[in-house]
Amino acid sequence: MRNPLYKRLPKELLKDIVKYIIMFLFLALPIALCSGYMIGNDSMIRTYYLGIDYYSLEDGHFITTNEIEDSIIDEIENEENINVFKLYYKDEISNKEDTIRIYRISDRENINKYCIHQGMIPTKDNEIALDRLYLENNKINVGDRYKINDIEYTISASISLFDYSCLFRSNNDSMFDANKFSIALTNDNTFNNISNDHLVYDYAYLYPKRLDKKEAHEMNTNLTKYLYQKLLLNSNSLDSLLAKEDNQAIQFAIDDLEGDLVMMLVFGIIIVFGLAFVFALSSKSQIEAEAKSIGTLKAMGYSKKELLVSYLVLPTIITLLAGIFGNILAYTLLKEYLVGLYYHSYSLPVYHTFYNAKALLFTTVLPMVMVFIINLLVILKTISIPALNLLKNQLVTKKRKKVMKLNHKINFITRYQIRVILQNKGTYIALFFGSLFATIILLFGLMMSPLLDHYKKEVIESQIAPYQTILKVDIDDLDGEKLYVKTLNYKNDEIMIFGLDKYKENSKYLGDLDIEDGKVVVSSGLKSKYGFKSGTSIKLEEEYSNKSYEFIVSSSYDVTGSLIIFMDMDLFIENFDSYLTSYFSDNKLDITDDYIYKTITLEDLILVSNQLSDSMGKVFILFTAISIILFVLLIFLLAKIVIEKNQSQISMLKIIGYDTFNINKIYNITTGIITVLSVVISTFIAQFFIKICWDIVLKTKMKGWLDFYVAPYLYPTIFGIGILSFLVVYFIESKKISKINLAFALKDDSL
Fold first, then answer.
1. Over the range 715-740, which residues count as b (16 or more CB within 10 Å of their CB) and which as e?
2. Cα 637 to the chain's mean position, in Å?
3. Please, where are the H alpha helices in 168-303?
4. Which of 397, 390, 396, 380 is nearest to 296 (CA)?
5. Are 150 and 237 spatial neighbours (Cβ–Cβ below 8 Å)?
6. Phi and psi for 75 in degrees, rounded to 5?
7. Model confidence pLDDT, tens digit, residues 577-614
8. 693: helix, coil or strand?
């Protein structure tokens, strides 16, 4: 037989529709955000790894001074057991003064294949396909005319190349540039008609099977030695060899994709705890309000099972609907928005959405199960109370407590406000913790953009020299301060080691750096991340080998954004056999670019910082918007619970002649004071909590370091949002107070 209690559900829903809408949004919005991000991020990562074979991604490529004869290529393939493919290109300058790297379509049929986003691949002469992101950034469309070296081409397609997911012109560049550099494809005729003045003999290679990082390193090291000797014997030379694992154009995007997921997981964990609190509080409040009804139903003979099921139906339906709606939003609008942010930064191939069981479990199933269990436990506890106690509204057995006396010199309204706080201290404690969760969510969303701006400023201000040039060979007597450079590993980070000949008073750039004999100095970023202090021992390891080095830290040096260890050149040479030469200087070194491995300038640092802000900052705009919504909803829900819990007392005040204005002073203003105090205290606790999470995540899961920073203006911003939220609640609840019936108090036996 159908439970007759179900008939009350529609009425119950309409009666408390505002609360159920809040609960719906509080669950649906975080599910949509977290699930949408995880789905989009995971889909792109899976598309990338599937694309390694689908697009026949190279294992590496090498550039030679002259063209290699086909017979020599055959020998290389047989002797080294690899497949070699020609990938000749020409770097040409467009009439926009941008660098366009032109490849032949025919060379990319079997290696580093292309992906068409729009249009058709060039088949006619003077047709060209350009990179999708370059076209987007420069507002150029398929079908437009485009001039390179004063020759006009028709853009037939927008494409992406898997080996150029980041548009690095050179692997030595500090940051990619999708505004002034693009790859391009043409047919053989068009390619051959372009002058050979800038022709580069580039060859990609594939091993018979995919290798792990260590195996690839060993194979590439041996291949480099072999090609150097082989080409030298055939009147040719090896200009460079770059393995896939070291190629920034290939690796940069996937490293970013995999790193960003960590921040979302932290945000998701905070949201889950917030959800647990909100639903526990809401369920408890509802049961307290329904205590007499439950007691009446028990007295009428309804079983615990019937009562339990009837009171679980609405929360469960709301939870399921929120989960369904959140996932629909995640798989449609939010996923596309978040994926679009990555496509705005990287030249990625067309991705496919994959069903993500982990995202469903983490963002939907677990919160829904958690909500169900919380409701189950709260309702089960209440319906287990004897019917007589429920009818008397006695949910807990309380010992009679002595009432605190208040000074009669305090005016009546103030004394009443104090009484309200004392009588509702449990609810106000809950309001404090609710404010804490809301503030954590809000601060996490608000802090990221100013943190990235602060990081950018600090990086620029702490730059050691206008130019740092790393050379391929050791050259003395250049115009600058010489140092040696080596990269070693510490945990999951790559650490730059600087061997300095000049520092302290001898240095123009490191005048305040003091290095003790036999000890090292760590950068401020390295100190912040791992907590290195004076006397701490640090053990560094070489990648792909068993070599390790141990040093004693003497102090730290203020360099933001870089993980660096400074040591005296004598100690450096004593420990390391292989290293690179570098120079600090005011201007570009007066040597040919052939000797330069990498140059780092102020413009490079600004470009890196801008890219970080561009790729991460826009994601947190969405975080901030949802955080503010959740914050307002939570403050509204908590204030609403206080009013509902005190309806009988409010009704009694109306009976004895108090108007809505004075009742607002007693209840809403009191709640407002507690809310403001809670937000103020919560902001500082939230900062401490997020700092702990920040340190743990960045130390264990992410490479590099971003100093934790909360912009000073965020404190008044959060206070302002809290006050504005309460003002909205104040006006809404004022109307509710005005509608409370005077007869309500007469029905309450507890008064």
1. eeebeebbbebbeebbeebbeebeeb
2. 29
3. 188-193, 213-233, 248-289, 291-299
4. 390
5. no
6. -65, -45
7. 888 999 999 888 888 877 888 888 877 777 666 666 66
8. helix
Q: Could you tell me the CA-to-CA distances from 559 to 367, 461, 516 in Å, in that order?
A: 42, 9, 19
Across the strands, what pairs with 555?
Answer: 521
Which residues lie across from 200 on neighbouring strands? 89
Structure tokens at 264: 């979302």
Q: Which residues contact 465 (CB under 8 A, 6 or more apart)?
A: 480, 481, 509, 584, 585, 586
Contact 509, 557 (CB under 8 A): no
Between CA 643 and CA 647 the distance in angstroms is: 6
Q: Name residue, tokens 């030679």.
A: 64
Q: What is the pTM of this model?
A: 0.75
DSSP SS3 for 471: strand
> Kind of pairing, strands 145-148 and 127-131?
unpaired
Residue 288 and residue 277: Cα distance in Å, rounded?
17
434-484, pLDDT tens digit by residue?
A: 778 778 878 877 887 788 788 878 877 778 888 889 888 888 888 889 999
Tell me if residue 478 falls in helix, strand or coil: coil
Secondary structure (DSSP) of 587-641 = S--SS-GGGEEEEEEHHHHHHHHHHHHHHHHHHHHHHHHHHHHHHHHHHHHHHHH
| Residue 741 banded pLDDT, cuts 50, 70, 90 | low
Residue partners of 597: CB distance under 8 A and separation at least 6: 172, 470, 471, 472, 580
Q: Decide: 469 and 585 in contact? Cβ < 8 Å.
A: yes
- Pairing mode of beta strands 493-500, 481-490: antiparallel
Answer yes or no: are the C-beta atoms of 220 and 81 closer than 8 Å. no
Give the pLDDT of residue 740: 67
* Alpha helices (H) along 518-601: 524-530, 569-575
Res 664: pLDDT: 73
Average pLDDT over residues 314-337: 85
Among residues 694, 725, 711, 732, which one has the least CA distance to residue 630? 725
How buried is 153 (Cβ within 10 angstroms: 0-12 exposed, 13-18 middle, 19+ buried)? buried
**Short-list 86, 69, 77, CA closest to 199:** 86
User: What is d(CA 169, CA 175) in angstroms, rounded to the nearest whole number?
Assistant: 9
Q: How far apart are CA 494 and CA 476, in angstroms?
A: 27
Radius of gyration of the chain from Cα atoms?
33
For residues 724 and 730, what is the distance between their CA atoms, to the nearest angstrom? 10
Q: How far apart are the first and last CA of the chain?
A: 39
The three-class DSSP label of residue 99 is strand
Q: Report the DSSP beta bridge partners of residue 520.
A: 553
Strand 145-148, strand 467-471: pairing: unpaired
Q: Give CA–CA dist 211/218, Å, rounded.
A: 10
Q: Which of 446, 691, 464 is nearest to 561 (CA)?
A: 464
CA 135 – CA 343 distance, rounded (Å) = 12
pLDDT on residue 575: 92
What proportions of the chain, in percent to the nearest 5, are helix, strand and coil? 55, 15, 25
Residue 531, helix vs strand vs coil: coil
Greatest Cα pair distance in the chain: 108
Give the closest residue to 632 by CA, choosing from 214, 17, 4, 22. Answer: 22
* Per-position DSSP letters for 100-151, written without gaps between them: EEEEEGGGGSSSS-EEEEEE----STTEEEEEHHHHHHTT--TT-EEEETTE
